[in-house]
Amino acid sequence: MEGIVKLSIITINLNDAEGLGQTIKSVAQQKFPSLEYIIIDGGSADNSQQVIQQYSESIHYTISEKDNGIYHAMNKGIAKANGEYLLFLNSGDTLINSHAPETLLDNGNEADIIYGDIILSDGTVLKESVFPDKLTFKFFLINSLPHPCTLIRKKLFAEMGGYDETLKITSDWAFFLLAINKYNYSYQHVK
Q1: Quick one: DSSP state of residue 50?
Q2: Which of 83, 132, 153, 161 could crosslink 8 through cysteines, CB 3.0-4.6 Å?
């Protein structure tokens, strides 16, 4: 990819060909001009590789090999990303429309962490989660920011050391907690 990459979208996948297809379609429809798309597959034994091949023109980098879990896969994606900001859109996640990244980066947002609200759906039931403008330690006692609506400036991962792979299900929560409450990185809520 030539020129400045403003945003890298990273998808991790393991044996979820159907969800992966939905996610890739969602990314492929984006109108954002400086977008890079990375897929880290954990060595899937289903049809994930065929789905990746089907949409290869929309993917800038992909690898399929066994990894040591979700945060190891995410760290592999971070290492390959060239974007100023990273968005983790995991297999089965989709963006709400073809301008979702632009909405988050619109109006000259330059915060280290830029987040929006999220709509959760099981196919029939919709639930919108609205996040506060001010993120406090108290917020992180019972919540976290969801990956599909949170852009993270890549330099934070270099400065903080990436996701802690020893935390099997809470490394993203720990990352946000430390980034905002200990290291005072800037953040912006986009409504």
Answers
A1: H
A2: 83
Residues contacting 101, CB < 8 A, separation 6+: 7, 9, 30, 32, 35, 87, 95, 151
pTM tops 0.90, yes or no: yes
Q: How far is the C-alpha of 85 from the C-alpha of 19, rounded, in Å?
A: 24
Whole-angstrom distance, CA of residue 37 vs CA of residue 9: 5
- Asked if residues 147 and 86 have their Cβ atoms less than 8 Å apart, the reply is no
Residue labelled with tokens 């492929």: 28
Can you tell me the distance from the alpha carbon of 151 to that of 125, in angstroms, rounded to the nearest whole number? 26
| CB-based burial label for 9 (10 Å; 0-12, 13-18, 19+) | buried
Can you tell me the distance from the alpha carbon of 191 to that of 184, in angstroms, rounded to the nearest whole number? Answer: 22
Tell me: the pLDDT tens digits for 37-96?
A: 999 999 999 999 999 999 999 999 999 999 999 999 999 999 999 999 999 999 999 998
